[in-house]
Amino acid sequence: MKTHWHTIIIGAGAAGLFAAPYAAKAGATLVIDHAKKPGEKIRISGGGRCNFTNMYAEPKNFVGQNPHFHKSALARFSQWDFVELVDQAGIAWHEKTLGQLFCDGKSTQIVEMLTTRLAQAGAEMSMETAVNAVTQIEDGFRLDTSKGSFTCQNLVISTGGKSIPKMGATGFAYDVARQFGHKIIETNAGLVPFTFPDGRFASISGVSLPVRVWNDRASFEEAMLFTHRGLSGPSILQISSYWQPGEAVHIDLIHGLDLREILRAQRQSEGRRQLSTELSRHLPGRLVEHLTTEWAGRFDLTERLADQSDKALDALLGQLSDWEVIPSGTEGYRTAEVTLGGVSTDGLDSKSMMSKTIPGLYFIGECVDVTGWLGGFNFQWAWASAHAAGRHI
Ligand code: FDA
Fold it and tell me: How far is the CA of 201 from the centre of ligand 1 (A)?
C-alpha cells in the first residue's frame, strides 16, 4: 500500500465514508478504521432499516454550544441532496413518521451505496488498522498505525462519539483534538433512556402511550415507554439530550385528550364509576393501576366519580398533565444513540470543518459538538459535515 496520501480519513463510519469520494477528487485518499467492517452503526441504525435523513431537517433540530455553527454545512448539503443519491442508487425508501426517511429494505444498502461511491472515486480503505500516534510534520501529518506509517497533507477525523463502546466507539477524536490544542465540550450520553431507582416502573414495563415531555429548554410530543430500568421511547430519548443530572422532567400523560369535559360529563351520567375505571378508558390500564398506588397519598383513584368536586377533578387533571419526575440518571453510553458535546466548534471553520489553527486537519460527524434530534438528523449532520470537508479538500 502507498505510504503517502493526499488525504487520510480516520473512521469509516457515516461521515468518513461519505467524505472520501469528495476528497478523492483532489488526490489519493485512504480511509482507515480499526473495525472489521465499515459503517457498522449505519448497519444497526433505525432498527436495521437506517433512518438516513429527515424531510424536515433544519438548524433547530441540532444541539450544541453554538446554535449557528451547523447552519452553513446543512444549507449546502440538504436532506434532499442525500435523498437524490439514495434515489440514484436505486434504494427504495419511505417516510415512517414525522419526516423520518427509512430504507424499505436493509440499512446495509446505505453502507453499500457509500462504499461503492468511495471505490468509484478511487479512494481506498484499510480496515482493522489501529492508529497509534498522529504527528504534525512539515507538510502535513504522519500516522503510526498497526499497518505501518503513513503521511498525508490532509487529515480528516471522523471517529464518531463514545456511544456503544461495544461496537468500537472510542474517544479518539477528542484525544487528537486536545493534542492539537482544540477545546472539548464536556461529553455526555444523548438520545438515551432515563433510569429510576428501585425499579420504580418495573411493574409496568412495556406500557407505552403518546405524551408531551418537556423541561425549561425543550418540549417533545411523541411516544413514551416504561421500562424495567425507567423511561424510554422517542419523547424521552429526545428530552434526554436537553437534561442535566438532578433536573426534573415534566410529562403530560393526557396530551391531546380533553379529559376535563369527559370527566365532568361522566360524573353526571356514570357517577358510581371509580375514577380509576374511567381513567383506564383513556389511558393504559396498567399505568392507571400503577398511579393508583404511586399517588395514593395525594389522590384516591378508587373513589367514585360522583364524589369528586370540580376542584378535586382539576387537581387530578393538573397532576396527569404535569407529572414531574426526577430521573436518577441515564443508561449512559452503553445504549445512547449519540454523544453530546465533543470537539468545540469555536476552533473549526463552519464552511469547511477545518481547524482554524492547524491547516489540513478536519473534524466531521458526531465527534463535533453538534448533536441532532432523534429521527435521521444525526446522519444528516454526518453527510453535511462530510460534504463540507470533502469539498474543501
Ligand atoms: P460513526 O460512529 O458512524 O463512525 C465512526 C467510525 O470510526 C467507526 O467505524 C469506528 O469503528 C471508527 N473508529 C472509532 N475509533 C477509532 C479509532 N481509535 N481508530 C480507528 N477507527 C476508529 N442516526 C440517525 O440519523 N438515524 C438513525 O436511524 C440512527 N440510529 C442509530 C442507532 C443506534 C443503535 C446508534 C448507536 C446510533 C444511531 N444513530 C442514528 C446515530 C448515528 O449512527 C451516528 O450519529 C453516526 O453514525 C455518526 O457518524 P460518524 O461517522 O460521525 O461516526
Answer: 31
Ligand 1 center from residue 102 Cα (angstroms): 17
CA gap 208, 112 in Å, rounded: 35
User: 192 in ligand 1 pocket by Cβ < 6 Å?
Assistant: no
* Look-up of cell digits 469528495: 22
Query: Considering the entire predicted model, what is its pTM?
Result: 0.97
Grid coordinates belonging to 199: 425499579
How far is Cα of residue 284 from the mean position of the Cα atoms in its chain? 28
- Classify the C-alpha dihedral 349-352-354-356 as positive or negative: negative
* ipTM (interface predicted TM): 0.99
pLDDT at position 198: 86
- 222 strand-pairing partners: 211
Q: What is the pLDDT at residue 373?
A: 98
What is the rounded CA–CA span in Å between residue 70 and residue 68?
6
322-351: b or e for each residue (b if 16 or more CB lie within 10 Å)? ebeeebebbbebebbbbbbbbbbbebbbbe
CA geometry: angle 150, 152, 153, nearest 5 deg = 165
C-beta 35 within 6 A of ligand 1 = yes
Distance 40 CA to ligand 1 centre (A): 7
Give the chain's count of helices (H) and strands (E): 12, 21
pLDDT at 221: 97
Q: How far apart, in whole angstroms, are the C-alpha atoms of residue 21 and residue 16? A: 10
CB 20 within 8 A of CB 46: no
With 0-12 CB in 10 A as exposed, 13-18 as middle and 19+ as buried, what is 260?
Answer: middle
CA neighbor of 263 nearest in space, from 277, 248, 253, 252: 277
In 3D space, the residue among 54, 55, 43, 15 whose CA is nearest the CA of residue 106 turns out to be 43
Instruction: Give the distance from CA 65 to its chain's centroid.
Output: 16
Residue 91 has pLDDT above 90, yes or no: yes
CB atoms within 10 A of CB 196: 18
Please name the residues in contact with 35: beta carbons below 8 A apart, sequence gap of 6 or more. 12, 127, 128, 167, 168
Residue recorded with cell 467524505: 19
Report in angstroms the alpha-carbon separations of 266 from 89, 279, 299.
Answer: 57, 11, 18
Q: Is the pLDDT of residue 370 over 90?
A: yes
